[in-house]
Each structure stands twice: as C-alpha cells, then as structure tokens.
C-alpha cells in the first residue's frame, strides 16, 4: 500500500507516474519542522535491522552506519567517507516500510551515524512529497515503488555485448585499430566509445574533421562489422559565435540564467558554455532534436556526461579568484595566505554560490537551481530519451547518463562514474548494483578495470568477471592511464575466456533483465531479500542473487586464488571459462572456492537451470534460440 503526503508546493519532478491523492501531513508519523524551514524525521533502528536503498551511493548494501547526502556531485574520488556520488535516489527501505522523498534538492540521510540506532532524515526545504510504502517484504515494497515510478528503460539487445571505451580514442585510425586488435585476438566486441575528443573543440553535436575526416564512412564501415560507435554528449553548450547550437539556444533563451536575467556562464571542457534549461519541455524537445545530427549519420547510442551539472568555474567566480590572486601578488605569503590562495582556486569548481546564482523555469515560474539541482541530469537524459522514443521507437537507442534522479530510469541507464583502478571498487560496484536496481536503474554498470589511475592485469580480469553479469559491460579508463583493453596485457587468452562467457550468458542475462524491467522487479537482489531468516545471508555484502536461478560471488582481492562464499542453500558451483564448464555441487554453508583469473564463478540453485548459447564475436551473430542448459 502507498500513501502520499504533500508538504508546501513541490516542484513537478515527474518521478512518479501514478496519481495518488495526498493525505494531510498532520497525520504523518515521526515528523518535525524546524524553525528554519527544514523538515526532520527520525525513527529508531532495532539491533539487527537492515536499511536498504539510496541507489548509486557510497558504502554498503546495508546503508547503516553512515551519513549520506542527496546532491548530484561530480566527484572522482569514491572513497568510503564520501557522502554523495552523481545521483540522488531518495528511496529507502526499512523493515516493512519504504520511503520515497520526492524532493530534488538536498536531503541528509543520517543512518546510524550520529546515533547508531537512529535514522535522522533532514529535508533541507519546505516543499516536497513523501510516499510511504508498506509491504510484507522488501521485494514487495520494491515492486510497489517501481509501479509508482514506472517501467525501467530497456536498451537494444546489442547493448548487452562487450563494450570498449577510453578517454579517448583520438582519431578514426585509433578506433579502427581497437576493433582490429579485438578481432585479431578473437575477443567479442559490440561497442567502441568516443569520448570528448571526437568533437570539434568539445562542442556537442559537431565532429572534429581533422581527426575524424570520414566520420560518416567510419560509422557505416563499423555498422558492416556490427560495431556500434557510442559518442559522449556533455551538458554544456560551448559559447561561440557561429556555432548554431549555441546561437539558437541563446536566441530562444533556452539556457539557464542568473537572477539578473543574463545567461549563466560557466566553464567546462570547451571553455565558457551555456547550460540548457532541461527542466523546460520546449528546451528538452530542442536539445533532444540535436541528437539527430548524429543519428542521421547512423549513430544509435550515446552517453550523457557532466550533467550534475559539473562546472569547473563560473565567469564570476574566476574573476573574483583572479582578483584575490592579484591582491596577493608580490607578497611574502605565509602558510595561511598561501592556503587561502590555493583554496580560492580549488573552490571554483562545483561551487555552491555558483549553483545558487543559477535559475530555471519550472512549472511556469522562476526557481533557484538550489531547489531543483538533482533534476538537471535526469532531464538531460529525458530530453534524449523522449527524442529517441518519438523518432525511433522503444529499445532502439542506447542511452545512459552519469547524473540521475528517480524517474530518469524510464529514459536511460546509468554508469557509476569515475571510479578507480582499486580492488575495493569491485565490491563498491557490486553493492551499488542492488540499490540502483531497487530505484529502477536496471541498465547500469561501473567502469570495468577502473577509470582513474593504472590498472593491473589481474584487477581488470577480476573486474570483468563481475562485469560479465552487469547489463552494461564496459571497460573504460581515464586520459593518461595505462592501457587496459583486453589485449593490453600478457594473458590475452584469459581475457578472451572471460568475455566469451559473457556472450554465452547473454540470452539468460537479457531475459532476466527484461523480465525485471517488465514486472518492476530487480535483476540483482541482496541475499537477505531471499533468505530473510538466515543470519549469514542477511549480513552478506559480497554476493548477490541474480534472477530466480543464480547467485554471483566475484573474487575481489589481489593475489588470492579464490574466496570464501556463503551458500544459503545447496547449490551447484559452476566455473565458466571460454567454452569450458566445471561443475561442483556444494552444500549449504561456508566454502572456500578456487577461481582462476580466466574463470567466471557462478552458483546455480538446486532444481534450477540456465541457458548457455554458443559464443560469437558479436551479439548480432548469437543464436539465442540454440542453447544448452546447465
Ligand atoms: O571531467 O569526458 O565520467 O567517463 O571519460 C571528466 C571525459 C569528464 C567524466 C566521465 C568520464 C569521461 C570524462 N568525463
């Protein structure tokens, strides 16, 4: 059952697709209003109660013992003491109750941080909707919530293939080379990514003709090879005379403004940009239409980046900083002054004063960006998604985004942003998978191998062995880092073994994904959802249930040949490697299982079978009807 309470006059977020009459807030339990207009509510937690939710966020499956912040943030250091990542997924489950706070500004979720046994949720402003969802079990609450917020995005079938990315493949030759190398190594591949350098000086919907002179030709050549090129699109539109996208946006007043009515000007990759006001339907329609430039060339997939929005500096902020620096010029800077100067510049990026100076038009009124911050990226995804659906129909175009808010899951998937080539980030992505699934984001995955810093062969292999199961299976890494494509290390055979397993599993993974999307279900679940009375299953943070049949348990540490795994019931331990399958029945309980670097571990429940098809070099060559069952 779902109950809705409305406080003040909330901005329309379109997170919810069901019309539910709002009840009087007076009847709302645990609530407290502070004098400064915040809204706080709190409840106690029993000793072994679990709190799930918050989607893409730091820390565990169980969110207890930390404080989180809903504020879409471009933060490339996903350490465990962070409070926010790129998304604001304001849905929590505790006991028999789900809470969704439809409020697109800041919320602080103190989940046993101040007091270990208390949850204190602070909503920073007076206008929001709260939905309380009751159910017998967490999964039932999830299904109700997902019904409330609408069906998850389903990508094209080929988006389940293996995808290779890097910032950047700088020219057409580099792109061709990647495919050649994969083909020569007989490692399957479906997508190659184009990061910001394919554009002409980072201008959205342009092509750098020096490095990609024959772009159209390249796209069709790739199409013949069944390879999809996936270009990036950034939120900001470069300010430049004669650049049609900017000129039209400016003339039609489609960019976000400051309080004095002038366009807000911030610096990102291209230099100064305008930020389309995606909250306005006519701006979404306009921006969506721009993708046609690339779809006309045969492009059928995109990733939307920098849409928190990330702002390196504002013109105003930079002026101030330079002025401060000027004042200090020639002085003998003591410690305090030096660090002051340093901070003046480092605080230029994603600065709260800048955000506060931006306005949007929402529901026909002018609202401060601060009140709607978390809707920005979501509406960029929606702009693209609405255009794709109108123009090409459903399930035709791949779309995923960095920033998101609940509701955007109907228009695209997400990736988990700029992680590191750290062992701990294998598990972080595993944990985010389930919480993102709860919130409706089914098509998701992390940068396999890690984005920032240098990876080692074993890390990439272990990361990929988890990625074999994530709907988005993309290897991506940052500028200046060591190459981490599947052919970049000593044991190319091991990489082939792992990626081939993905292709053998695609019919099963795709069906499981589809079913989850169509029935508002989860593809991955915490073990505690399925075995609520089993103490070890309840505490398990390193394994997940997959579909109705399987459990996954990746190896996540270096220099180990396996891991301890907990079986909440008798299962068959399966090791998949290329065309090889090793099976071993294991009984309920704890086991140490050995897993080679070229193997993918999987556990199949008693009485269940899963289909495996023949592997192929492309998803287009798979024969999903011809399967064998294990
Ligand atoms: O400030 O486009 O998360 O995947 O490679 C970095 C360059 C901008 C951030 C994305 C990352 C991408 C990178 N972008």
Structure description:
With 630 residues, the protein is of the alpha/beta class. It folds into 3 domains: 2-149, Immunoglobulin-like; 157-257 and 266-311 and 367-509, TIM Barrel (Alpha-Beta Barrel), CATH 3.20.20.80; 523-629, Immunoglobulin-like. It is 27% helix and 25% strand. The protein contains 16 helices and 39 strands. The strands form 9 sheets. The chain has a 9-stranded parallel sheet with strand order 27-26-24-20-15-14-13-29-28. A 6-stranded mixed sheet has the order 2-1-12-9-8-5. α7 (315-328) packs antiparallel against α8. It is globular and about 70 Å long. The two termini are 39 Å apart. The mean pLDDT is 97.
Structural topology:
Layout: E1 2-7, E2 22-23, E3 31-33, E4 39-44, E5 51-53, E6 66-70, E7 87-88, E8 91-94, E9 97-102, E10 107-111, E11 118-123, E12 128-134, H1 138-149, E13 162-164, H2 172-184, E14 191-194, H3 215-224, E15 228-234, E16 237-238, H4 244-251, E17 257-258, E18 266-268, E19 271-274, H5 281-290, H6 292-295, E20 301-305, E21 313-314, H7 315-328, H8 335-346, H9 352-357, E22 358-362, E23 365-368, H10 369-372, H11 376-392, E24 398-401, E25 404-405, E26 413-415, H12 424-438, E27 444-445, E28 447-448, H13 457-467, E29 473-475, H14 492-518, E30 524-525, H15 527-530, H16 535-539, E31 544-546, E32 550-552, E33 562-567, E34 571-577, E35 580-586, E36 589-594, E37 600-605, E38 611-613, E39 627-629
The structure holds ligand MIG.
Residues 167, 195-196, 232, 305-306, 402, 417-418, 476 line the site of ligand MIG.
């Amino acid at each position: 059952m779902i109950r809705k309470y409305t406080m003040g006059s909330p901005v329309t977020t379109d997170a919810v697709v069901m019309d539910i009459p709002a009840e009087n807030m007076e009847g709302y339990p645990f609530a407290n209003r502070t004098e400064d207009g915040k809204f706080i509510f709190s409840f106690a937690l029993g000793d072994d109660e679990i709190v799930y939710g918050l989607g893409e966020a730091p820390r565990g499956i169980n969110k207890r013992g930390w404080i989180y912040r809903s504020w879409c943030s471009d933060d490339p250091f996903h350490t465990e003491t962070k409070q926010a990542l790129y998304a604001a997924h304001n849905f929590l489950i505790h006991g028999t109750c789900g809470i969704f706070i439809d409020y697109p500004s800041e919320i602080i979720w103190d989940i046993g941080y101040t007091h270990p046994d208390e949850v204190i949720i602070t909503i920073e402003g007076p206008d929001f909707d709260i939905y309380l969802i009751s159910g017998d079990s967490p999964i039932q609450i999830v299904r109700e919530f997902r019904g409330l917020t609408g069906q998850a995005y389903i990508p094209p079938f080929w988006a389940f293939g293996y995808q290779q990315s890097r910032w950047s493949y700088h020219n057409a030759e580099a792109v061709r080379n990647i495919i050649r190398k994969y083909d020569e190594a007989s490692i399957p591949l479906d997508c190659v990514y184009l990061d910001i350098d394919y554009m002409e000086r980072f201008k959205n919907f342009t092509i750098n003709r020096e490095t990609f002179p024959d772009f159209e030709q390249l796209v069709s050549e790739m199409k013949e090879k069944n390879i999809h090129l996936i270009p990036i699109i950034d939120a900001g539109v470069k300010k430049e005379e004669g650049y049609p996208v900017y000129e039209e946006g400016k003339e039609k007043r489609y960019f976000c403004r400051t309080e004095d009515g002038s366009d807000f000007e911030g610096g990102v990759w291209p230099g100064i940009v305008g930020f389309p006001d995606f909250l306005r339907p006519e701006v979404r329609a306009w921006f969506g239409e721009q993708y046609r430039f690339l779809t006309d060339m045969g492009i059928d997939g995109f990733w939307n980046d920098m849409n928190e929005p990330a702002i390196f500096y504002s013109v105003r902020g930079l002026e101030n900083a330079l002025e401060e620096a000027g004042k200090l010029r020639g002085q003998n800077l003591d410690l305090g002054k030096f660090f002051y100067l340093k901070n003046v510049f480092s605080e230029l990026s994603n600065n709260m004063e800048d955000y506060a100076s931006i306005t949007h038009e929402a529901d026909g009124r002018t609202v401060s960006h601060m009140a709607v911050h978390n809707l920005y990226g979501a509406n960029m995804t929606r702009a693209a998604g609405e255009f794709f659906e109108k123009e090409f129909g459903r399930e035709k175009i791949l779309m995923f985004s960095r920033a998101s808010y609940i509701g955007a899951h109907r228009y695209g998937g997400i990736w988990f942003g700029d992680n590191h080539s750290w062992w701990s980030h294998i598990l972080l992505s595993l944990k985010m998978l389930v919480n993102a699934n709860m919130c409706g984001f089914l098509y998701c995955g992390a940068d396999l191998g890690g984005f920032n810093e240098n990876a080692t062969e074993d890390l990439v292999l272990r990361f990929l062995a988890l990625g074999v199961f994530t709907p988005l299976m993309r290897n991506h890494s940052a500028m200046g880092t060591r190459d981490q494509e599947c052919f970049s290390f000593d044991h190319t055979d091991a990489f082939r073994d792992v990626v081939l397993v993905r292709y053998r599993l695609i019919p099963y993974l795709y069906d499981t994904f589809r079913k989850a999307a169509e029935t508002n279900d989860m593809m991955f679940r915490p073990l505690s959802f399925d075995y609520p009375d089993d103490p070890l299953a309840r505490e398990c943070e390193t394994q997940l249930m997959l579909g109705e049949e399987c459990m996954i348990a990746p190896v996540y540490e270096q220099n180990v040949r396996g891991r301890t795994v907990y079986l909440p019931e008798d299962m068959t331990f399966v090791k998949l490697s290329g065309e090889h399958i090793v099976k071993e029945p294991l009984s309920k309980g704890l086991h140490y299982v050995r897993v080679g670097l070229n193997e993918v571990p999987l556990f199949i429940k008693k009485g269940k079978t899963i289909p495996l098809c023949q592997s192929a070099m492309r998803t287009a060559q798979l024969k999903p009807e011809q399967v064998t069952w294990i």
